[in-house]
Amino acid sequence: MVKRSFDDWIQFFESTLLIIGSALLLSGIFFLVAFNWNQLDGFTKLGIVGSLNLIAYFLTIFFRKTTFYFEIGLTIIFFLTASALFTFGQIYQTGADVYDLFLGWAGLTFLLLLVSRSGVVTGFWFVLVAATVYLYSDQVSNETESYHLFTITSVLFGGAVVALDWIKTNIYSDKSKVFLSGLGLFITLSFLHSVASGLLWTGEEIKSLPEYSFYQILVPLLFFGFYYSYYRFVRFRLLNLTIILLFGLGQVFLLAVDLFKIWAYSSGVSFLLFALWITGYTLWAVTHLNHLRKTKLNTGDLP
Hints:
Largest sheet: none
């Protein structure tokens, strides 16, 4: 155990009090502005938000050689950009939908991806784009267009995920690539699952169209087969395989519900077959993932 001298304790308490005092001062300023926000004119509101953005930009440039502080600065800029757009929309009542603000947010923060080193901002940007697509489908497009939009989004995200694995650059670390690859694949398969789920609960006139077979069976099967083969045999990623098998469970669930007509409460046999099908797939998926993990650990090839 390291013994500290009296001077060390004095220095510790002084530093602690300085940090606490600074935090309380900043908190006081924040709550003072927030409490009187409605009393401020538009120019002052925009000036406050703009000043915060400029300060964040200058501090990020100043700490650009320290990766940790640099990424914190980029993250702050990422969210301050949204606050500037929301403040502008609040003051001038632009009448824009939420997806318009999210689309502008994504466009204005795209350049941050090119300088980000840890992938944190890139991950936030992926989620932002996915949210923008979902909001657009909810507020603007109709039901049929949403199926097409979600499928196109899945193809674009899926292509970006594969491209990310093949980028020969040292911008992102291996851990960041694993995280971004898993996040992008999760978004890709989530949109596909939304398409299949939406078609399942629509009316019979929609289910009678060829789109039902295309989106409910062919597209999920192609995506499942391609990404499973790719991330098992070409570029092994256990996290991605877990997401793929989870997507498979969701598709099995939807197909089982449709096949056994669970919503019709036909018979106890349907519920039993449904439960056995889901349980069987789950047991196989967990056993398969555990086997792959042990095999890669033994060969020393697990990332």
